[in-house]
What we know:
There is one protein chain. The chain is of the alpha/beta class. The chain has a single domain, classed as Rossmann fold, CATH 3.40.50. The protein has 8 helices and 8 strands, in the order H-E-H-E-E-H-E-E-H-E-H-H-E-H-H-E. Strands 1-7-8-6-5-2-3-4 form an 8-stranded mixed β-sheet, with helices on both faces. The mean pLDDT is 96. InterPro entries: 23S_rRNA_MeTrnsfrase_RlmA, Methyltransf_11, SAM-dependent_MTases_sf. One of its GO terms (molecular function) is S-adenosylmethionine-dependent methyltransferase activity.
Amino acid sequence: MTASFDDLVAEGDAVDLAGWDFSWFAGRAIEERPPWRYAQMLSERMGTAAAGLDLQTGGGEVLAEIASPPPRLVATESWEPNLEVARARLASLGGEVVHAPDDGPLPFADASFDLITARLPVTTPWPEVARVLAPGGTFLSQQVGNGTNIELTRAMMGDHITPISRVPEDAAAQARAAGLEVVDLRTARCRVEFYDVGAVVHFLRKVIWTVPDFTSAAYREQLRAVHRTIQRDGMFVSHSARFLIEARRPR
């Protein structure tokens, strides 16, 4: 028997938000991945680093998949509930997880790491990244791009909504202003499909920048409209925007 609108919304509201694990969405939503395969790049780079730092690691889900950890592996996270999740997940790699605010400062000495990574950071503290990178060291990051999931944002908040500006060229300019050399900058637009409104609710609770003040109670009628779209079309389609930036500290 097909779950009702109310049951699906309640299910989406009940899912634990700790960590950055999206496995709950299996069979309920799918997101196309960017062509550069960030997780593979992360694993390869960490495998050749002497000291690696992963910023805003969430529950350590992506970092935990690296094939071979560097001799020193550290991750930062700002949200308290994620700290113990990440520590447990990264223990087998010998990873240390420390609390640090997203916008810095970073609690490390100058030139501490030859590799710094960040997947979907809330913000990038470019001066701090430049400070703790060793000369010749690399910063590699996959970030949220301009107008990501604007279709879903507008379905909730209205067609008048203007995307929050997260322009790759702005990130590159900030990296250069911090004294780094930008060696790679790529963009991708990826299809996202939601197959039930419960997945939409959980996504909006988890990815909070999509609808910053989201609660299922406040947006119930908009959710009902999305539910009708899914019933009619089999899915609600949105598009995520991503960009890859690689920057290096000069020797």
